[in-house]
Write a structure and sequence with these properties.
This protein is mainly alpha-helical. It is built from seven helices and no strands.
Length: 196
C-alpha cells in the first residue's frame, strides 16, 4: 500500500470515528453546535404564553382568528351545507352559473382535474395514459366522460360538489386544495360540459 493510500485510509477512519463519537447518544451538558442555523432559532409566538408586543395590551400570545377564518377540517361541513337541504338530500345550486363562474371553474378544473379527466372531461387524462403505457395493457381502469355519463348528467349539483369535496373511489378529496367558492365554480363548469 502506498503512503498516500495509507494516509487516506487513516483519514477516513479518523473522520468516521469522530462522526460516530458525535452520535454516542449520551446526555451533554453543553449546547449542541449549529453550523447552519436554518430555522433552529426563530422568533415566534408560542400558544398559551404571554408576549410583550407593542399594541397587544392583553399580552396574550394566542390571538383571536381573523373574521372569515375556516378551521382546518371544518370546510367540508360548511361546504356541503350549500348543496344539501335540511334532510341531507342533494339540491341544485340556487345561484345560476354565469360566464365568470364557468371561466373560474374551468381554470380550476384544468389545474386540478384535467390530469385524470383531461381538459374536455372525457376521462383520458395524462395520468391514465401513462398508467396504461406503463402497465402495457394490463391497466383497465376507466374514468367516466363527465359530459356524457348519464349518472352524472342526471345528478344534482350537490352530488357533484360532494364528490369533489370528499372524493370517491380512487379520486381524492379536494376540500383542502380548493375553497368553497372554487368548488362551486368547478361544479358550474361541469354543468356547462353537460349542457345545463
Amino acid at each position: 500500500m502506498t503512503p498516500a493510500r495509507k494516509l487516506s485510509v487513516l483519514l477516513a477512519i479518523t473522520l468516521a470515528s469522530l462522526a460516530l463519537g458525535a452520535c454516542r447518544g449520551a446526555v451533554k451538558r453543553s449546547p449542541p453546535i449549529h453550523p447552519v442555523l436554518d430555522m433552529d432559532f426563530q422568533d415566534k409566538v408560542k400558544a398559551q404564553l404571554g408576549l410583550d408586543f407593542e399594541g397587544w395590551s392583553d399580552k396574550r400570545g394566542s390571538r383571536t382568528p381573523p373574521a372569515g377564518t375556516v378551521a382546518r377540517g371544518s370546510l367540508e361541513r360548511e361546504a356541503l351545507a350549500v348543496f344539501q337541504d335540511g334532510s341531507g338530500n342533494y339540491v341544485d345550486n340556487p345561484i345560476s352559473a354565469d360566464g365568470d363562474f364557468v371561466r373560474r371553474g374551468r381554470e380550476r378544473f384544468d389545474i386540478f382535474c384535467s390530469v385524470c379527466h383531461d381538459r374536455t372531461g372525457g376521462g383520458n387524462g395524462v395520468v391514465l395514459q401513462r398508467a396504461k403505457a406503463i402497465s402495457k395493457g394490463s391497466f383497465n381502469f376507466a374514468l367516466p366522460n363527465l359530459a356524457k355519463e348519464p349518472r352524472l348528467i342526471q345528478s344534482k349539483d350537490g352530488y357533484l360538489f360532494q364528490v369533489i369535496t370528499n372524493g370517491q373511489a380512487t379520486m381524492p378529496s379536494y376540500a383542502s386544495l380548493l375553497t368553497q367558492d372554487e368548488l362551486a365554480d368547478v361544479v358550474a363548469y361541469l354543468l356547462s360540459l353537460k349542457g345545463r
